[in-house]
Amino acid sequence: MSDEEHHFESKADAGASKTYPQQAGTIRKNGFLVIKGRPCKVVEVSTSKTGKHGHAKCHFVAIDIFNGKKLEDIVPSSHNCDVSLLTENGNTKDDLRLPTDENLLGQIKSGFAEGKDLVVTVQSAMGEEQICALKDIGPKS
């Protein structure tokens, strides 16, 4: 045996808890899908007829839920796609960054300055999070 110490640093992440496989033919409009490694909301799905090679194809048009960019993918309907897990457990979260949307940011800042109770909606998928909506639930009690 060698007396040398070995240190290994893992930089890989299987992402097993961030996505799950789902057959392409079962994914519908308003569902969530991973395209080019980005979590997206499906805005359009079209399916071609079975061709001479035996596979119908699904054409997905989707919007990245964090940056709003449009992405497209074509997948055989019988093949699996990665679908992003959007979990909701109800725990209070206090480590969120403020949104970059100036209108939403202004509403949050003025609401806190006025002492209101605010509830924010947070989108979370594949290790990214963002505040996407705000609800005023009245004056602080």
UniProtKB/TrEMBL annotation:
Residues 1-12 have a biased composition (Basic and acidic residues). One of its GO terms (molecular function) is translation elongation factor activity. It holds the Pfam family eIF-5a. Keywords: Hypusine, Initiation factor, Protein biosynthesis. The keyword Protein biosynthesis applies. Gene3D superfamilies: 2.30.30.30, Nucleic acid-binding proteins. Residues 67-135 form the Translation initiation factor 5A C-terminal domain. eIF-5A seems to be the only eukaryotic protein to have a hypusine residue which is a post-translational modification of a lysine by the addition of a butylamino group. The keyword Glycoprotein does not apply. Residues 1-21 are annotated as: Disordered. Translation factor that promotes translation elongation and termination, particularly upon ribosome stalling at specific amino acid sequence contexts. Binds between the exit (E) and peptidyl (P) site of the ribosome and promotes rescue of stalled ribosome: specifically required for efficient translation of polyproline-containing peptides as well as other motifs that stall the ribosome. Acts as ribosome quality control (RQC) cofactor by joining the RQC complex to facilitate peptidyl transfer during CAT tailing step. This is Eukaryotic translation initiation factor 5A. It comes from Eragrostis curvula (weeping love grass). The lineage of its organism: Eukaryota, Viridiplantae, Streptophyta, Embryophyta, Tracheophyta.
